[in-house]
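Much of what follows relies on a compact textual record of a protein's fold. Think of the row as the fold of the chain written in a discrete alphabet. An example makes this concrete, so a full record is given next.


***
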Amino acid sequence: MNKIVEVLLRFLYELSDEPFPVNTQTQIFNVFKYTWLDNQVLTQFFNWTEGWNPNVNEKITNTQFLKLFIDTYESMIYKIGKHILYNKVLIIGSKDLNNEEKIVLNSARAFFSGNQFKKTIEVCHDLVEKTLREFIYNILFLKYGSNWESMLPKHIFGFINKIKRKEKKQYGDILSHSSNSLYYLSRSAYSIIIDDDYLWTNCFSMLFGNAYRSFIKETLENLANLGHLDKHNRDEEEIGKISAIIQQNLSKSKEVIEKINKAYLNLIKLTSISIKGFKIIPRLNSQEKIDKIEPISVKDIKLDLLIDSLTKKNENYENLFKKLFQISNITQVQDIYSIPYRKFIGSLIYLLHNKTIQIEDHYGSCILFKKY
């Protein structure tokens, strides 16, 4: 029976235009495991695989299940073929999420379907917090260099320094030497940073679009409020009374992640960024004064080698996933290219603006480049 289900799922996968190949039965089952939880038959199948082996010779059971599966298969095809976004948490086919984000959001949907509302909130909140913390740091560091912390709202900047001083006093040194000190902040602080007038105008509005200011702020605040329910010892049944609100925020979490990924694409294509020789002025708002902005010089970067690395790498792999790299991931960028993050992004901007390379495709913040 597994083989029959596998063939049918592969057909659905092809309909979805999902870019990444799946080679084994286990991979195709994992792709769909959390995706179709409104389809009770398929959900039952994957639940059974946990404690019941569908390969056993129980012909009556297998036949009954297969008949139910075929009966629901038409509706599954209809949903993919006609309504690829039939619900806002359908992940297959989304180009604005990477594979890891799809897995996390689908697992949140699975928890919601199983009435595990606390876990749903936790998974969504952790993903949004991690993605947003990384994004805020990357953007501020790119623009303001080593002075990025001083651009935070004053009370946020003061709070971070207070924690650092406290750690030095207690332990002789700060506990974390990560350059991203936003780790010190509580979850509610991110909405304050995003909503700061100066930062919104000069950093985030050009990347998200002005219409999304209130949406992002409200989503962060709602997730923070929902996260407090568990701290107040609310049980699942009580939290379940607001399940509609939790489901809405699950969809909104997905949209926030997609907007952040799109913002990275917008960043490297912005025309407001000025280039003078090999110097990049990462001004996101053309009206912003440049006295606080730290220029990026790419004069010492071997751009020809970088171009070859970006494009030849793409030609040497059949698996599309291996052709992509995630520009939001500082560690990955530095490990692969051995170039400081600011200089690497500056180099991409320089090459794109000079029409040396172009974006061929993207999935989330993972980008595929090709020569012009």
In short: The beta strands are 274-276, 279-281, 296-297, 325-326, 357-363, 366-371.
